[in-house]
Amino acid sequence: MTPIDYSYYRTLTAKELEEKIRYFNSRYWNDSDAEISDDDFDFITRLLAEKDPENLLLSQVNSPGVAAASTIRHDPPMLSLDKVYSLPELESWVEKTVRSPEEELLVQPKFDGISVLWENGVLSTRGDGITGQVVTAKVPLIDLETIEGVIPLAECPHAVLGELLIRTDDFQNLYSKIINANGRPFKNSRNAIGGIMSLKDISSMLAQHARLTMVDYSIFSRKTTANHLHNDWQMILDEIEELPYPMDGLVVKLADGEYMRSLGNTVHHPRGQIAFKFSGVRRTTKLLGVTWSFGKNCLTPVAELAPIEINGTTIRRATLHNLQNILTRDIQIGDMVTVERAGDVIPKIIKSEPGTERKDCLITHCPCCGSELVHDLPELRCVNPECLETRLQNLLAAVRNIGIERLGEPNLRKIMTDLNVRTLPQLFNLSMLDIYSLDGFQGTSTQNLYREIQAARTVPACKLLAALNIKGIGPNIARTILKKYSLAQLREAQPEELAQIEGIGPERAKSVYETLRDQASILDELLSCITLVSDTGDGSAPKICFTGKMPEKRAWYEQIAKNAGYLPVDSVTESTSLLVTSNPDQISGKTADAKRLGVPIQSLNLWLDSVRTFVPKKEEPEAEEEQLTFDF
Ligand SMILES: [Zn+2]
Questions:
Q1: For residues 71 and 133, is the Cβ–Cβ distance under 8 A?
Q2: How many Å lie between the centroid of ligand 1 and the Cα of residue 348?
Q3: What does CATH list as the number for 63-280?
Q4: Options 2.40.480, 3.40.630, 2.40.160, 1.10.150; CATH of 388-456
Q5: How far is the CA of 371 from the centre of ligand 1 (A)?
Q6: CA–centroid distance, residue 291 to ligand 1 (Å)
Q7: Same topology for domains 388-456 and 471-533, yes or no?
Q8: Which candidate, 218, 242, 236, places its Cα nearest to that of 145?
Q9: What is the pTM of this model?
Q10: pLDDT in tens, 299-331
Q11: How many CB atoms sit inside 10 A of residue 512's CB?
């Protein structure tokens, strides 16, 4: 299989493209031999669609010839869907179709099989949409998958619209032992289903226990809204990729069926739904090499690719996720890999086929410190505690989780190498002069970074817990845990107890327990230089309340609090994050409330220390006045 030259195909006329498509389609389905990749085939059909949108061939390709008993007339017609090839194209379709940004949309897989209808004991293909082929003879091979479960299709009493295909796991397990009419194994699942559907007599397939699956179209559906589509897109794509069916895209449709039907159809397509085809965002190329970059607690493989163009951008690198992914898929240098680029996300490799000349891409020793690497699946790790790159990534993750957003990798690297910082407490103890001494820092940038670091010393416990880099514990899970346990209680809890918390499970419980035990001294040090506040939960400013007689006017402290990101309030309620008291030994109504509601209490001096960068310098005029008095 060789990649085609896109620029050559762009020069062809509609007629020439049509000939190419007919040739490749017939090679694919009839000779069981694909000369070009699916992506390249889709590219050529797309060119034809651009040059001649009404071309009849467009509704006929991508389907095999079937051995049919007779034909059937579909009423209403089974139309094919209009297609888009990128997220921006999809978004512009959504924009012109929805009634409001809150309009609900359904996203479903677009299966890569044969569209079929089961009705009154007759199974028929979509055909050209109006006339389909009757293929009831194949029913003994077919299981029906619906949300309720799997049954033999013959036993389904009601009508179903769905896709006839071979599950990817079936193809791997079952079909490795099945041979086709030529006495050879099928090349891929699309090829197998085409081959089986073209058989007049299925007895050899029945004898070999071949299995086809009809998937009810409503089996998998994710809801989103027009305004959330962009953010949800990658998550939905990832979820759909996990499904065990061959797919070539997604279907996006309006959730309001009545409104969707009211939009009606063009000659070819319904207006209320659209297909998102992967081929615009995917291409196959050669894997030239693999580099291992440092991530949090692990090394991440990055693919170096023979350059390819996807949606107008040249792609040279793609993520390979982790060691497990490389081992499971047996990816080696020299393999042909399919790269996907969806939206703005990093391109990733979603498929691979062995190349002719292959070379192992695993490494055994750390590129930074030279220590022997450990396979701690799914990750590859450098476990040397002194490894600078590993510590940099861990500290970077901690810095992000605790909320110092201005400090990126290049500057943190400088801080680690030039100022010998290795931990969060050391970072908090940096002076403004330390930061100013770093290459590239000026007055304002020094002051900004210093303030941001100091502001991060006032945190809700969940951010602190997330900053400990415990495996599987991000800010959200940390919040769930801390709803049930205070940080102090958490440090005393046994793994069995922790495992009972909803959403934690034994594995996370074990890593929480072990990290808190092994890092007890680091945590103590950290706790000594930060101020814990209650979590507002919604990202709003933490509420602070003051009590007791203080040296300055209350407004002065409230202004400092505002500068440090707090919202000053007059009374202690459940949503208050911190109560600051001038005298911790004195019991006021507010301290009693705080104790009852579990709101943290802090002495004024400690609090002022934690926000000292926000405390204004003493007013000069006062001092002058004193001096004047003295002069008299
Ligand atoms: Zn290392």
A1: yes
A2: 26
A3: 3.30.470.30
A4: 1.10.150
A5: 6
A6: 15
A7: yes
A8: 218
A9: 0.55
A10: 999 999 998 888 777 889 999 989 999 999 899
A11: 28
